[in-house]
Design brief:
Elements lengths: L2 H26 L6 E4 L3 H6 L4 E4 L1 H20 L11 H16 L2
Parallel strand pairs: 1-2
Length: 105
């Protein structure tokens, strides 16, 4: 990829993702995030100026792995097996119980 094509691709991607990034920051503002751990993507750097921002794959890999485990475990609830329930209320209770045990302890 030439330098010019790389700049065009980056500019196009940022213009597409910027509104989603702004919405995500708006949703996260209620949690009073102290430390932002990201990879070195320029969109993060430009938007998180003045905040405690750690740029490292070391920490993002651990977070992504945790989220992947959570997604995989929750996906198992959708499989129609012997333990599958047709009750939405029961699914809500099972998911809530799972999150309390696995995610928050």
């Amino acid at each position: 990829m030439t330098g010019c094509a790389g700049r065009w691709w980056h500019t196009s991607l940022v213009s597409v993702l910027w509104p989603h990034w702004e919405r995500l920051l708006e949703l996260l503002s209620v949690f009073d995030v102290v430390v932002w751990m990201t990879d070195g993507w320029p969109l993060y750097e430009s938007r998180l100026k003045g905040k405690l921002h750690v740029i490292s794959k070391r920490y993002t890999q651990r977070i992504e792995r945790h989220n992947l485990n959570l997604r995989q475990h929750l996906a198992r609830l959708g499989r129609k097996s012997l333990s599958f329930s047709k009750s939405v209320e029961l699914h809500d209770k099972v998911i809530g119980h799972y999150l309390n045990i696995k995610h928050y302890q």
